UniProtKB/TrEMBL annotation:
<protein>
    <submittedName>
        <fullName>RNase P and RNase MRP subunit</fullName>
        <ecNumber>3.1.26.5</ecNumber>
    </submittedName>
</protein>
<dbReference type="GO" id="GO:0005655">
    <property type="term" value="C:nucleolar ribonuclease P complex"/>
</dbReference>
<feature type="region of interest" description="Disordered">
    <location>
        <begin position="250"/>
        <end position="277"/>
    </location>
</feature>
<dbReference type="GO" id="GO:0004526">
    <property type="term" value="F:ribonuclease P activity"/>
</dbReference>
<dbReference type="GO" id="GO:0034965">
    <property type="term" value="P:intronic box C/D snoRNA processing"/>
</dbReference>
<feature type="region of interest" description="Disordered">
    <location>
        <begin position="63"/>
        <end position="102"/>
    </location>
</feature>
<dbReference type="GO" id="GO:0000171">
    <property type="term" value="F:ribonuclease MRP activity"/>
</dbReference>
<dbReference type="GO" id="GO:0000172">
    <property type="term" value="C:ribonuclease MRP complex"/>
</dbReference>
<dbReference type="InterPro" id="IPR013241">
    <property type="entry name" value="RNase_P_Pop3"/>
</dbReference>
<dbReference type="GO" id="GO:0005829">
    <property type="term" value="C:cytosol"/>
</dbReference>
<dbReference type="GO" id="GO:0008033">
    <property type="term" value="P:tRNA processing"/>
</dbReference>
<dbReference type="GO" id="GO:0006364">
    <property type="term" value="P:rRNA processing"/>
</dbReference>
<feature type="compositionally biased region" description="Basic residues">
    <location>
        <begin position="267"/>
        <end position="277"/>
    </location>
</feature>
<feature type="compositionally biased region" description="Basic residues">
    <location>
        <begin position="65"/>
        <end position="82"/>
    </location>
</feature>
<keyword id="KW-0378">Hydrolase</keyword>
Length: 277
């Protein structure tokens, strides 16, 4: 019992941990997100959710139609057998076709998801001439709802995608606060929407773009395409939050005095002197 109690006490002492703050040098080339007031970000998200309601209604109706088609095919397969029934079933529209059929015009001006928006920005950055039908005018990222690493590439990529556009008509990047992802997902009829890209051409979406251009600065990378003279900048230091085991200094000092036998460590062997020739 005493040995078990001592083992439990030693294990509990080893599992005790304390919060530790470690400082490390951060990357000097860190692209900051465009500055925007919290009220402006909330207003942009509100306007965007209202403008995307028709798209969410379309996806909801398309899913209901797809489920109905699946139920009809299932009942038909249960009533019929053979190749003739399978051939008749193949004429029905599948779930993917039902979701894509009859999409509203609004769908042409919206890009949903991190990967799709990233690919659109990459194509836009490679183009030498602007394309009003393909270029994104606004990107809204739910920074407060996703890991920072997932959207860390967007500021630099947005700066590359804006090209030589004037500041008043350039692409805008908005980092929304926590809670925006759930609202955008409900508005678009999706399970999750972390990033939304917007193209100009729709009246409701154009109003959102104009509001973003009026309240959010264009994305910029200071060391790319800048005429500023070289200057000294403060060192970038980041603070890492981690944990470390709590050490009993008194017990460690007493064990050190008792020698290696008390701690269970093997005594160090002395190195043999090598005679010089």
């Amino acid at each position: 019992m005493e040995e078990a109690k001592e083992a439990t006490t030693a294990r509990a002492a080893s599992e005790r941990r304390q919060q530790v703050f470690k400082h490390a040098l951060d990357r000097p080339y860190t692209t900051n997100w465009p500055a925007a007031k919290q009220a402006v970000q909330g207003e942009i998200v509100d306007m965007l959710c209202a403008a995307l309601q028709p798209l969410g209604a379309h996806f909801a109706e398309a899913r209901r139609a797809a489920k109905g088609a699946q139920r009809r095919r299932r009942r038909r397969r249960q009533r019929r057998a053979g190749r003739q029934a399978q051939g008749a079933d193949s004429r029905d529209a599948g779930p993917a076709e039902a979701l894509g059929a009859g999409r509203p015009e609004l769908h042409r001006h919206v890009v949903l998801g991190i990967n799709s928006t990233t690919r659109a920005l990459e194509r836009q950055a490679r183009r030498t001439e602007p394309s009003a039908a393909e270029d994104l005018a606004l990107v809204v990222a739910c920074r407060g709802d996703v890991e920072a690493q997932l959207v860390a590439h967007l500021p630099g990529l947005a700066h590359a995608a804006r090209g030589g556009s004037a500041a008043d008509s350039a692409l805008r990047l908005v980092g929304a606060a926590a809670g925006a992802e759930k609202r955008l997902a409900a508005a678009t009829g999706q399970q999750r929407v972390s990033v939304v890209g917007i193209r100009a051409g729709d009246a409701a979406l154009d109003a959102v773009i104009q509001r973003a251009r009026a309240g959010v600065a264009a994305p910029a990378v200071p060391w790319v395409g800048s005429d500023l003279r070289p200057a000294l900048h403060p060192m970038a230091v980041r603070e890492l939050h981690t944990t470390a085991p709590i050490r009993d200094k008194a017990a460690a000092a007493a064990a050190k005095k008792r020698g290696p036998a008390a701690t269970g460590a093997q005594p160090r062997k002395k190195a043999k002197a090598v005679p010089q020739v």
